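We read letters as residues; the fold follows as C-alpha cells. A sample entry reads:
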Amino acid sequence: MGGAVPDETTGRASPPTERVIALLNFLSAHPHDRFGLSELARRVDLSKPTCLGILTSLTEAGYLVRDSGAGVRDKTYRLGPTLITLGHTAQESLRVSPAARDELRKLCETYGVTAALSGVVDDRITLLELVAPPNTPAAVRVGQSYPFAPPVGLMFVLWDERAVRDWLAKEPTIPLRTDTDRFERVITACRAAGYLVERLTPGGRRLYALMAGMSNTLPDELRALLGELVSDIGERVYLPGTDGPDTRHDISVIAAPVFDHHRRQVMVVTLQIGGALTDDEIGTRAAGLISTADALTAQLGGSKPM
C-alpha cells in the first residue's frame, strides 16, 4: 500500500481512507481476478464487516462491480467502470491524449515490441501510457512508479542541463560511484543522437522490479542490495559504434525525449526491446522512436531545445 493519507488540517493519517486505498490497490494489482468478501478481507487485513462496508460504498459509486452467483457466498468483486473515467481524466491532466496512444500503437506495430510513455509525476517516475503487442505479458502497467533519484531517471533529464544538475543533487537511492569522463561522454553522445540506449543487464532487470512502488526512502537492506546491482550513473547506457557493425548487444530500452512549449523535457517515449540488436537495428528503431517523440512534442505545442 502507498504512504499514509494525511488529514488536511492536522497532517495526520486517515485510517479509513487508507483502508479504501488498500482495497483499490489490491484489486488493481489483480485486474483479471475476482475476489469474494472473505478473501478480500483476509488479503487486505480487514475485518469482514469493515471490508463489506467499503465494498458496498465503492460498488454503489461504480468504482467496483459485484458479480452475483447462485448465493451470497458466490458474490465477487472487481474494478468498475467509473475508474475508466477517472483514469482517462488523470491522463488528460498529465497531457496524455488519445492521440498519444495512437502514436504508441503505430510504433508498437512497426517494431513488434512494447511502446511506452513515461514522465516524472510528484517526483516519481510514472508510466503514463503503454501499448504492447498482442498476447504479450505486461511486465509493467500504467500507473506504476519508481523513485526518481540517481541512478534511476537519467533518461528523464538528459536533454536539459539544469534538470541534470538538479537530479544529480538529489540524495541517491543507493550508494554510487561516478565515472565523470564516461558520464560526460554519455550526455554528449545521447544529445547528439537524440536518443538513449540502455543495456539489458541482470542488475537492471532486478533494479526496477525491486523499486516498483517503493517510497523514495528505501530500507537500508534494499539500498545495499541495489548498490550491488547498479552503482555507477549511466553504466547501463550503451553508446553505439563502440564495437563492430555485426556485434549484437543485449538491449533493454531505447528512449527519446518529448518537450513542451518551454523547450523543456517533460516525458520520455521508450521501446521496450528486451533482446539483442546490432547497431544498425538500434539505429532503425531509434529513428522511428524519435519520429514518435517529435509527434508527441508537436501535440503539446512544444519544440526541441536550440
User: Anything to note?
Assistant: The first helix runs from residue 15 to 29. The radius of gyration is 21 Å. The chain has two domains: 15-85, 95-300.
